[in-house]
Amino acid sequence: MAELLLVDDDADILKLLALRLATAGHRVRTADSGEQALVMFQAQRPQLVITDLKMGGMDGLALFDEIQRRAPTLPVIVLTAHGTIPEAVDATRRGVFGFLTKPFDGKALLEQVEQALRLASPAGQGGGENEPWRADLVGGSPAMQELLERARLVAASDASVFIAGASGTGKELLARAIHLASPRADKPFVAINCAAIPENLLESELFGHRKGAFTGATYNHKGLFLEADGGTVFLDEIGDMPLSLQAKLLRVLQERQVRPVGATQAVPVDVRVVSATHRDLDELLKSGQFREDLYYRLNVVSLALPLLAERREDIPLLANHFLQRTASRYGKPVTAFAPDAMEALVTAPWPGNVRQLQNVVEQAVALSPVSGGLVPAALIQGALRSGDSAFTSLDEAKKVFERDYLVRLLRLTEGSVTQAARLAQRNRTEFYKLLERHQLDAKQFKPGAGDSA
Q: Response regulatory domain spans which residues (predicted)?
């Protein structure tokens, strides 16, 4: 049984279609306009959309464009009484799954619906959240469901994957899930944080070294690429990799072989590379801190993890998941959150994302009384105020400081960019870029700028 969304401004056609598809065993929701359908789609994502082409307001192809922007893998079938060959060609080129003209053959429609559902989810619809490969990625929100569907599809290929996401969103968990869903699942998954290893040791850690290659090299070391041979290498915080090493990594990816430090011959290696960073690679590319050729080699398929604050509907699921796991580990008899405790979790800002949520739940469980079955709001609020959970990331702190610094300069110079740039020891062009980045207008700081006309 699949969840279908039907869209048509003709009430009779809508009833007929709904009846026919419900009789075939599907759950059917209906909308009489593209605008209504989009609202329903955002509230609950269906497995297939069937829409009329010609409708007042948002037509079928405009609705398809909006759906594809939010869920690129979701199949859409377009129906029309005004079908023409150019329309059909345009629709299929844009990615519409099927195009049927009215009056349509009921059997042909059902066949196309079944084909769309079968191709859209080879692993079978329903119960996807219980699949082992994605067990650690908890979430039922449309954003996470779409992300996981894309991850499942790309996992079947051998394409390099680039994961973008703020600190604490779960980049390594997603990389591991891609590995587990891939044909390489029975081979090693090796992760390394490029920002956590000193520059002079990173090459040796990645590609290995020979005994005597440098002071302290008292044995042969395989390196992580050779350890992962046949499997997946996850390069976290790739944006922090030194330029000199970026060139060597590019050569490894192009030639599919590594040369350990101190070795005279290269060694063949077969790995799939997944990389990630919380940094803005576009900025690094512009500033010359990241190689463009390496970027395109790594970023064959891009996946973006949403902030926790952008998928608040997942917070109860995640919180209960962490609660069960932590209570079991600590031997605490807590089974749920008090209603006001859950409300505090759902409404918190979460600058540290899922990692912060996990830390807050763990602290609350650790401090829960042995006799209590519910986690009270006081423990959640205390955990939110204390420890690492109260801090933003270093990059966020830098952004806040930089904006405050610029505001103080503009106030001091009364909106004079020339004087402000001189005080900041930056040229005017660079200073204007800083203002643009923080969406600041120097004119607003000139005397009388806030006066009414």
A: 3-117
